[in-house]
Amino acid sequence: MVGISLLSRISGPFAVVILASVLVLMTSGVSEGSVTERRPNPRSCGEAAMCCQGQNNTCFVFGQRVDRSDDSSRCYCDSNCLIMGDCCMDYHHTCKSVDCQVGDWEEWTTCDNPCGYGTRKRTRDVTQYPDNGGSHCPVLKQRRACVGFEAEVCSQNLIGEQAEEKAEQARILPIEFGIYRTEKKYDPWKGILKNLYAKYFNEIFTRATYRGKYQITSTHHGCENSEWASILKANTSVCVECQPVAMNREIGMRCLGHGVYNAETAWKAVDVPHCHGTWIMTDGHQPETCNINVEDDNKRNFIFL
């Protein structure tokens, strides 16, 4: 029986539905006025003029299989027969596979970030979709990293950033306070040190410590009343570190008031009344620390708060 033989490919509740469909198709194939004219009792895909995509359990005829199996009297003309091994003898000739064909790559797009890290992409179109078990289409889209640099956009960004940085006031402490940020034996919640942890404690930072070198251009007399701030006199050169715990995410992972190269900006000594002034950055930001190993220079090394 056709229906019973068909069930070897499928199982479960769908078997009854498929069997009914096959019987209807067979009946309609021989009924008067049928639209599809087929050769009586076709025994090959060519005689049935039938080639189907994927797995189609109704796409079969009663003919010899390529594996010459005696278990079934039917062979299939769907592309899944290549996997099942139950194709009709003429399947490869009648239903020739067609591999996917694609066109040439388009040109890479411009960087999606006009000033900074971004991505570029390109695409290609399918000119021939796979048929009869042909190979699948290759990658149609590609992306790669890029660094955009449009002079006008970058210059405007730089002007905006520098204007903001020039208006900031740095808050500094002696570099010796920097060890309190990492050594557990010190209590970060006592006295002036609590300010170091108030906002950024326990956050994970990805930027390393960097430093800048400055020449003090003016200072207020209040600095003279502090042992550590008394070194902050006009024409004195100092080095200031921006350590990760002091970096502010909202302004671009940097320290507030870290200055602008060759420009005058403001500074303030933390916890020293009336100790403030201006300085000029003489050596731009570098990914390194201040030299705290030289005894004479220790008093001229500071950290941003």
Short description:
The protein is an alpha+beta fold. It is built from 7 helices and 12 strands.
Q: Biggest sheet: strands side by side, in what order?
A: 7-10-11-8-9-12
Basic shape: rod-shaped
Series of secondary-structure elements, N-terminal to C-terminal? HHHEEHHEEEEHEHEEEEE
Using only C-alpha atoms, the radius of gyration works out to: 39 Å
User: What proportion of the residues form beta strands (DSSP E)?
Assistant: 15-25%
Number of helices: 7
First CA to last CA: what distance? 88 Å
Main structural class: alpha+beta
**Are there runs of 5+ residues with pLDDT below 50, and where?**
1-7, 11-36, 184-189, 196-205
Largest sheet: 6 strands, mixed, barrel
The total of beta strands comes to 12
Mean pLDDT: 78
What is the oligomer described by this structure? Answer: single chain
Helix-residue proportion = 10-25%
